[in-house]
Design brief:
Layout lengths: L2 H13 L2 H8 L3 H15 L4 E4 L2 E4 L1 H27 L6 E6 L1 H4 L3 H11 L4 E6 L2 H9 L5 E6 L8 E9 L1 E5 L11 H4 L4 E3 L6 H11 L8 E3 L3 H10 L4 E4 L13 E2 L9 E8 L6 H14 L1
């Protein structure tokens, strides 16, 4: 596979048409079409379909485009590292950060990072698991500082553990179930859930089913902490949170722990990345600082 072929495929994905891709690449439409056909011949599978809505990828095309994007990202990181080793200032790091981190040690991490790489560009994303997985797999972030269930992650991911995270069921202080002690008392309430492979809700609900216990049926799924926090503090929805929130102001005064007589599985806070994708020098420095401060 040639670089120009992969770039043509990615531009077709980004722009939605051969014509727009050719314009973006400053090539003729036949040249872009030829590059796509060469790719299809090499992989012996159709990659794009033309329709009234423009160009759409086949499943084979989606798989190749995802990996081509990751390959382009890795080449860009290699160039970054070379420039950094030569004294350049072109470092770019993108990371997702779980709420318990961005509510806590994130400012300390950023200040320390700026001492060593003052001109590096930083992109930070919210780090709940449903949002983290597509960001990692599509190459938009280098790594995530995330809370995940070890042993429940897909094989293409690896988690470098930092610390365990004790979990609790939380609600607003005046919630009618704020003093409930039995799972049966709260299971029929409405819940906010963050579902993804390796997420706490996914693993917990699977464990409840195996143990013959009821699972919440009234749920609202979200991948946004802001949405979750607004709902749990201003309505009767329940949310599973790290216990550490009870020591972070002003959040500690906005929720209480439901005193259940059963324990919840602990999450593992760690550096989550694609197994086959090494970190750049700059991303490695940032990940090291997260390990140091979060521990």
């Amino acid at each position: 596979m040639k670089d120009y072929q992969l770039r043509a495929l990615l531009r077709v994905v980004e722009t939605g048409s051969i014509r727009a891709a050719a314009r973006a690449l400053q090539l003729s439409q036949p040249a872009v079409t030829k590059a796509i056909r060469e790719l299809e011949a090499e992989v012996d599978a159709p990659l794009v379909l033309r329709s009234s809505r423009g160009v759409e990828l086949t499943e084979s095309g989606r798989q190749l485009a995802m990996r081509a994007r990751l390959a382009q990202e890795q080449l860009a990181l290699a160039l970054q590292d070379i420039q950094q080793l030569q004294g350049g200032k072109q470092a770019l790091v993108a990371a997702a950060v779980t709420p318990v981190i961005f509510m806590g040690v994130l400012p300390d991490v950023i200040r320390e990072f700026r001492r060593t790489l003052p001109y590096a560009q930083l992109k930070l994303y919210e780090g709940l698991m449903p949002a983290v997985l597509p960001l990692l797999r599509e190459g938009f972030i280098d790594f995530a500082v995330a809370g995940a269930m070890e042993g429940a992650l897909d094989a293409d991911l690896e988690l470098d553990p930092i610390a365990p995270i004790e979990m609790m069921v939380a609600c607003r202080p005046s919630h009618p179930l704020a003093k409930a002690t039995r799972w049966e008392d709260i299971v029929d309430a409405e819940w906010i859930v963050h579902r993804a492979p390796g997420s706490h809700h996914t693993v917990l609900f699977d464990r409840l089913r195996r143990d013959g216990l009821p699972v919440p049926e009234r749920t609202i799924e979200t991948n946004s902490f802001g949405v979750s926090w607004g709902l749990v503090t201003r309505s009767d929805l329940l949310l599973i949170l790290p216990v550490e929130f009870l020591s972070i102001e002003p959040y500690a005064s906005q929720v209480v722990r439901v005193p259940l007589g059963m324990g919840l599985p602990a999450l593992t806070l760690g550096i989550l990345k694609l197994r086959a994708a090494p970190l750049s020098l700059a991303a490695g420095k940032l990940a090291t600082l997260f390990r140091r401060y979060a521990r």
